[in-house]
Structures are given as structure tokens and as C-alpha cells.
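Structure, all two chains, one model.
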Amino acid sequence: MRHPTRLKIGRVGAGCLALGLAFAIPNGATAQEQPILITGATILTVAEAGRIEDGAILFQNGRIVAVGPASEVEAPSDAMIIDGTGKYVTPGVIDAHSHIAADAINEGAVSVSSMVSIHDVIDPTDIAIYREVAGGTTTSHIMHGSANPIGGNNVVIKHRWGEDAQGLIFQGAPPTIKFALGENPKRAGSPTLPGQEARYPASRMGVMDVIRQAFIEAAEYKAEWDAYRARVADGDRDAIPPRRNLTMDPLVEVLEGTRYVHAHSYRADEILQLMRVAEEFGFRIHTFQHVLEGYRVADEMAEHGAHASTFSDWWAYKMEAYEAIPYNAAIMTQRGVNVSINSDSGEEGRHLTQEAAKTMKWGGLSEAEALATVTINPAIQLLIDERVGSLEAGKDADIVLWENYPLSSYAKVRTTFIEGEVMFDVDADMAMRAEIEAQKAELREMLGEADDEEDPDDERDPGRRPGGVR
Amino acid sequence: MTRGPGNSFGNTMNDRIGNMLKSIVATAALLGTVGFALPAQAAAQDGGTFAVQGATIHTVSDGVIEGGTIVIRDGRIIAVGNDVDIPADAEIIDGEGKHVFPGMIDSFSSLGLTETGAVAVTNDASELGRWNPHLNAHTAIHPASEHIPVARANGITHSMVAPGGGGRGFGGGGSGIQGQATLVHLDGWTVEEMEIEKTAAMVLGWPTLSTGFRAFAGFGPPSGGRSFRQAQERFDEQVAEIDEWFVAAQHYRQAVASGSDRVPRNIQLEHLSRVLDRGMKVIVRANGWREIESAIEFAEKWNLDLVIAGGNGAREIAATLAEKNIPVILGPVQRVPQGEDTAYDDPNTLPGALHDAGVEIAFATFNSSDSRTLPYEAANSVSWGLTKEAALEAVTLAPARVLGVDDRLGSLEVGKVGNLIVTDGDPLEITTQIEWVFIKGVPSDLDNKHRSLWEKYNNRPARRVTTTTT
């Protein structure tokens, strides 16, 4: 099912994007057929080509065809040409930690909730999907919450506003799971209600214990399945499979290295301890999330091979964030950790390049390093860097055209493409507003007529917006 | 003799300041940046003479002076211009390539009133009960809060510290009389040294006209809810409650004025009665246009010197606000638009729209730990219609006017207090570095918790693990 608003974007977007040229995105099209060339712009490739002044980028069928100096990129005769003079082009922004587009976030009743998945609760009508595209974000890692030491499974989406839940999913992105340490899984912020039994754990010791015990069980469960499969392979027709355990299945994938751990963490001590617990069981903590004290154990993280996805400058909102510093990303980067800046919020997800710019101010990362924290680095953390995160021929045409310099507090998006399709355009948005206003006026008129026939004692809400999506 | 961050300088100034600044320079040289440990207030009483020579001076009140010089003596600005005599005893900062701006004012913060949002015992921003006109932020401002030097290091030199707010995520205290706000310099050994106006304004939280709410931080669908009629009734009742307090305050004032010795002292009414007949500024926190309209009506009834804080819905009644000269303290600009069908850039376009309509605007963070991001709140309006000049004014001279202290603060003019910042560029731009901060005419300490931790961990030696177990 397509969201009705999106159909309007498609239609209006096509008209506005034409920029005087004949161009149309057919409603319902999923692949961009007409080649598009953006030329004359400063292109920040986040690849070997680096920053290209007076550059051009050509894309077709949802993939990047060529990137380079404007003089070297030739456009096919049927290409739509966008004048990028004075503008900037970057890869679509990737948010490694988001909670938008989901109807539920936490399954907090148990300490290990690996049986649940965000996959089952994707909400494609969340307007945040669109608002973040308007800030250049094209891919997001929608994560389970941090209520339990081992949380649920996450899902990677592309911000294909208008698609249904299935259509948002980033096909081929390897599976991930949420872990959480510290105050949240201890439920420090959520005291038990009177009469309610307290949920274990309540200390950082208990958090590590829950994780360790879960993996002891997962290893045993895995051994049962391995033994069963070995018997089947040997031709044993009487072999009885072990009882399927949906909580353990994802943890077995972690042990086998096919599901990647993203661990919510704050303090340096818990970061270190989790790496050691993982090492006991022979797996790796793929990415630490938040990791606000990562700067204290950056060497250990680099040695373990953990990545870090952190905030730009939030601090002091809770005890374990009191020693957070805005230099965190720079220190970790300079000590060899792959670092991304994430949003954890439908607000911050609308201006992640600005957050990335703060790594230049606090700790002196270069322009390329800073932009990498919201493009190629999160792509590496989500193991989708073959597809997205930089502007290189063959990659997905997830491209942002900026009115001005993106690593700036003045940054403003002009147009965002996902796989070559316009997902946001400033002019299209303006046109859509006019259409929404007209629709509202029409609805008000209809409502007004209905009101005339209404029982005066009717308690129905005359101010309620009709046709709400939720 | 000239100096700048990291330059050595002579000893013509008095020894106390000299020694202090030497330690600054020694530290700066060591760290390769500006950073020192002595509170600037050490020198405040001694005055001192400083000149920034050959800089681009952004006066805010009277344009930009290229290659200009500004001189501060005994805490005041004594000269600004191209043709300025520098006193022989002045310490000179080489302004070549540098920019001088007035220090920035966070028009509404909880700086000093909260340390760690989630740790209740560190929060003094909100008191129990809804009727606290007699409480004053001044009594709880913690001059040693780690948040203050963090804000200051990014060029925030003053703030109106207001009760009723809190740490990050705090809603703002709800409907009622929240108490008196204090305007402070963000430097001082005690709150008395920080104070500009002990009582800058009375802060009221206006009721919210709301038909529903979301369960938690935007996660999940709306729950609860009431009809518009019910919401309106509830709203009117809450306004009537506030009105009762004003009636009581008026009666109290009349009773006291009558000279009767039978009036028992009521400290709540004593304080509240001071706002009547424009005796004190009244800052009303209100967001929706209906709420703002109601607050204006109320202010007219009681002849209040009204300032609106929040003002998300002010666009709809901008003409009224302009006509009645009611300023709006805006922020944060980096917020999610209210309502699913609200334009994605509604928060960004609001400041420009109000400014164009002739409304006086000032920016605020309504926060403590995030106060340093004030300049980015302003900048985030610039690509959406507010001029850079107006944005700068809205964090300097405009807040000084709104808070009634523009005779002393907010611009670089002869006679004003020596509050200024020296930068390597536009202070509203993220990547700009703040190199000097002068508060009350003396250089202020730019060291803070974050910088100290950065220095410490950036210099962490290679990992050392000594095996002490067998």
C-alpha cells in the first residue's frame, strides 16, 4: 500500500524537478529510468576522489554511473541536467541509531528479549521518515530500545517515504541485535511499581551476568543443533531436532558471526567488560552505541575491533553521561576506531551533517573525516558500505544536493535522491503544502456541513483533524 | 606589545593580571590552544585595560568595522573604531584575522539550576506546587556548575536563568507561577558576582490547550485524549486559577497601601504584586497561538510587561505581537515540528517570519547542558529567511532589549560593559573557534570539564596491562 501523500510528492516532485526540462517520475515507479546529471557542484565523495570542485555526478537506474570533474563526466542525450553551480553534493546521510518509523521500541518485561524484532513493528506512516529525508538522511538503523541487557533485533531501512513497511527495508543489510549496558537495563530510570516484582538485573554486575548466562545457554543450544545436523548429515533418519528456541536463535547467529551486536553503552568500564565477555564466547562487539566514554578505552576498542556510534555533544542528561565530551568522536577516530555520529532522535536525524561538523570543532577532524562519520562510517558499521555511504560508480544513487555547505549550521538540503528517485525536493515540498492546504479547506467545508446536522450535545471533537494516519 | 592566544607578552600590566595571563599563555602553549585554570574573576575588581587591535569588529548596534580596535578599561568599553588611541598601559591582543562580537546571551536557560537531568537530587529548577511567585532562581544558582564554563567556552557570556525548566527533556513545569528569573554573567565566584539583575522577570507557565498526548517521548500512538470542548473548558479553568492569584495580589497591594496594620504579610502575593502595572517583566511560556492570544488578553487585563517564551505558534498572530510590541523568546529551533501535517521546516522559518512581521525575537536554549548550542539555534533560521545580521542580533542586542539591559549589554558601544568574544570567524558557525571571552572587562577562563578530559585522555599513553594474577 502506498501512502497517499507520497503519490502527491511523486507527482508534484516531478513537475518541480523538471527545472524547465521535460522530466517525470511515473507514479509507482521504483526505479529511476531517465539518467540524471548534477553538474558544476562541489562534490564531497567520501571516497578516494575526495572533494571535487566543479564536479559532476551521473546516475541512472538507481545506481551511480560516474563521478568526477564536470569536464570528464559525459551525460547521455536523454539525461536530465541539474545545474549544481554553487551547491554541494554528498552521499545520502546514514543514521546508525534511530527509533523512528516503529510502533514499539522496548520489550522490557524480560532481561533477554532477543525473540522480538523491530521488523515486526515498522510504521511506514511516521512523518519522521520524510522529515529526515528533508535533512539528507536516506538510511537508518531502527533499533530496539535499551531496557534489557540483550534486547531485540533491529532493522535497517531506507527512507523510501510512501512505501509500505516491507518496501522500507534495506534488502541485504546483515541482521543486527541490540545489547544494552548501564543505567537503562538496570532500570535505574524506571523504578519498579509498588507491588511489582523487581526485574533482574539491578547492577552492572548483573547486566554482565545476564549476557554471560544467555550465551552459555546459546552455546549449549547451538551444540544441540550442531549435533542434530551432524546426525542428519550422517544419514541418521531417526534424529529428532531440538526444540526451536526463538530467544536463542539470534544469539546463535551472534556466535556464528552472522548477526552483529550493537551495544548501548556509556561508561568506559562497562564497554571494556562487554568486550571481555564477548571474547569469552569468541564473538565480537561489532559496534558500541552512544559509547560516550569511548574516549577512555579507545585503544582497547580498536584492539577488539569494535566500532563506535556516538552523539556529537550531548552530555549530563544522566549520571553515566556526565563525563561525556564532544571530543569523543575525534579521540576515538584518532586512535583507530571507526566512528559514526548518530541521532537516536527524530529531531537530530534531520541535521546530522551539522552534528558531524562538531567533530571538526571539537578535536579537529578533517572535513573528510567529519563527513565520513555520517556516511561511510555508519555504512561500515551496518555492513552496507558496498552499497551506500560514498559517491562511487556502481553504488546506490542515494545522493543529497545541498543549497550550501553541508558541514555547517547554515546547511540546507535542496533535493534528496534515494536510488535515483526524488524523495525530497524543496520546491516539491512547497507545492505539496499548497495542495495540503487546499485539501484541508475542502475537509473543513465538509465538516462544517456535517456540523450543521449534528446533535448540539454531540461531544465529538470539532477540532480533530480528519483523516489522520495514526 | 601585542599578544594573542599562544603568544608571549610583556609585563606592563599589573602583576596580578599579568601572572594570571602568563599562566594562560603557558598553558595555551602547552596545549596548543587557549585554556587556563584561574577564574577570571580574580582580576575583576582590579579592572585593567585591554585592546583588541586590527580586528573585524561586529558592533551589532552600528555595523561592522574592518581593521578596527576596541578598548576596554576598568570593565567598560571605552573606545571602538578605526582611529582609536590605545592607552599606554593596555594589554593588546593582535586582532589580525580575528573577529570581535558581543558575548552571546541565552535568553532562557536553567544554567546553574541543574547538573544531571536524570539525577533528581541535582535538579533545583522546579519546585513543588504551582504557585511560587516568591521563589527566585538566584537562590539556587550553583556558580560552580560544570555547565557554566562549558557554555562560556563557546561564547555564551550571559543568560537569563529561569525556574520551571530543567535538564534536557524537561517539559518546562506546566501551568502556574514558576518564580523569578535572574540575569547573570556566566562568570563569578559567587552568584552575587554573576548577577546583572537579581530579578529579571516573573516566569509563568501558561496552560496548554490540548486534546491528547503521547505516552512517552513521541514513541507510540497518542493515548488518552479529550474533546476540544473539554480541552477548552480545562484551559479556561486553569487561566481562571492564574487570574485568581492576580486578583489576590491586587487586593494585597491595595490592603498594604491602605496602611492597615492588620494585613498579615504574604510573601507570595508581595512578590506577585510587583508585576502589576508593568512593575516587572512577565515572561509567559506559551506555544500555541490560542495560548499566546490568551496570554496577551490576560496581560492587557492586568497591564503586564509581557514577553512570550516558546512561541512555536506565534506565526499565526505575528501581526498582533508586532503591533503590541510583545517580544518572543524563541527556541529551540532544532525541534520537531508540532503536528504531522506541519511543514518540515516550520521551526526554521518561524524566526524569520516573526522578524519580518516586526516582532522582536531573541533565541534561547531552554536548557543547561546544551546552552553552548545557542548560536546554532540562531543559525538554523538563516537559510530559511532570517538574515545573518538579524540572527546575530537575536543572540546579543535583542535579548538585552527584551530583558531591559540594552543600556549595559548586547553590543560593542562605548560605555557598555566589556563583554565580548574574539573568534576566528562567525560565532554562529559550528566550526568557528572562540579564542577569547571577556566578561565584565577581563579575560574569562575557557577551561572546562570537557577540555580537561580531552587533554587528559588525548594524552593517554599506550595501553599498559601488568599481569598480577597467575
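Confidence is low (pLDDT under 50) at residues 1-29, 453-470 of chain A.
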